[in-house]
Amino acid sequence: MYPWTFLHCICIWWLLPVVLLSPSVKGQQAYVANRQLDCYNKAFDEITKGFVCNGVQSSCQSYLTFRSMPPYNSPVLIAYLLGVPQSATLIASINDISSDTASIPTNSQVVVPVNCSCYARQYYQHNSTYELKETSESYFTVANNTYQGLTTCQSLMSQNPYGDRNLYRGLDLHIPLRCACPTSNQTALGVKYLLTYMVTWGDTISSIAQLFGVDEQRILDANKLSSNNIFPFTPILVPLTTNPTKIAQKSAVPPPAAPSPQTPIVPVGGSSSSSDHKAVYVGVGTGAALLVLLFAVFGFLFWHRKSQPKTLPPDSDDFTALPVSDSKSWSLSSHGVRYAVESLTVYRYEDLQRATGYFAQANLIKGSVYRGSFKGDTAAVKVMKGDVSSEINILKMINHSNVIRLSGCCVHEGNTYLVYEYADNGSLTDWLHSNNKYGILTWKQRVQIAYDVADALNYLHNYTNHALRPQELEDQQHSFGCQLESQGC
């Protein structure tokens, strides 16, 4: 018995390091998933701030991928953006481009060689710099739009001394780009380089493995992935045994359309078939009764409005002072605002005065938002200071059944007036925190609202050209909320 026990100990002692250091057990880096989208969530800082320094070397040759997008659509321009101006000719050579100044077709994937180093003994990165071009730029837009996800807003905020609200045009930012060096396990398997590949629509682990001619399991291990769930605009590490060459371009896969407004009612627990039918009958009957009541109320209000005399300019007691910007140097003639409002209705200031009763206190909804009537249609008018053309440009592209739509704007004496469709039933915030002022929501209604809000947030984050910052999302919901017509409220 004792000899066998001793032999077992010898075997375990010999096999233990083999098991612990096996490439299939120990991964390289944690996949960021979509955690980088929440700039202010510190729970995942170890993942969102960069790839940890766990390789054999503290500095190594690495590679990034970047999609050619104007104005960064030539090897030399991409090289300067990514902090490798001396490598413009090499970029052209690797990607089989005629010269370092030649234009690259839009959306083409470009392989960029970089030197990857361990920063502060914590994260691997390649450093670049970027000068802010617009006042509307933020850490979020620089990370996810300009650099296409090769860095994160979390790493930008941690490595730059400027607050996220103190950025201005002409400011130089330090840009840490995500890269990594192979671990001892990967080196033992013949891996020489790690390439940071940016996932796009339609990509899978299998398709990425085929693109670079590597084993699918090695990509899973390199990113500590146990499944094929990956997201667009997130970095994936691809282990390479040789220098990469030009990536075979595939046809661009367009993002999916926003989900249909007819969202299904979410079930809340099992029940018998008869009780389900009964619930449907009750719901339909209640909805029909509320619809009839709603039409009756609208009819009364319409008749009452027509019977009232025309609104005259209010007395000083009823007038609400509006904020006035110090700057009057911009107007609708500027290029940025012309582009922003090209698909919106441009109102005259006099129209807004008449619609809101000269911004009467009685029409004040909340903050600087007023109720207005335009040719019988009710709208919400929000007063904002200064040039908000960038905000208009983002909001005008949002088209979702659960998000209030921007329909028009006006510029007057340095202020901007945004005209939104009116939420007849009040804002989502009011319904959830009104202490029964607006009525009591049933459990099914609350579940449906949660589903619709999640659907709208998913649309704002993933299906719009410009993702909104968390503060912008909060402002959008608190000022106007999501539409609740489908909830029977």
Detailed description of the structure:
- Residues 1-27, 257-280, 304-342 and 474-489 have low confidence and may be disordered.
- This protein is elongated.
- The protein has helices spanning 2-20, 45-48, 75-81, 88-94, 139-146, 153-159, 184-188, 205-212, 216-222, 273-307, 335-340, 349-355, 389-395, 428-432, 443-462, 470-479; strands at 51-52, 59-67, 109-119, 123-131, 172-178, 193-198, 235-240, 345-346, 364-366, 369-374, 377-385, 406-412, 415-421.
- Helices cover 33% and strands 17% of the residues.
- Helix 3 (75-81) crosses helix 4 (88-94) and helix 5 packs across helix 6 (153-159).
- The strands form 2 sheets. Strands 1, 2, 3, 4, 5, 6 and 7 form a 7-stranded mixed β-sheet that branches.
- The chain has 489 residues and is of the alpha+beta class.
- The relative contact order is 0.09.
- Strand 3 (109-119) and strand 4 form a beta hairpin.
- The chain has 2 domains: 23-240, no CATH class; 310-487, Phosphorylase Kinase, domain 1, CATH 3.30.200.20.
- Residues 195-238 form the LysM domain.
Based on the model shown, name its key terms.
Phosphorylase Kinase, domain 1; 16 helices; 2 domains; elongated; seven-stranded mixed sheet; 489 residues; six-stranded mixed sheet
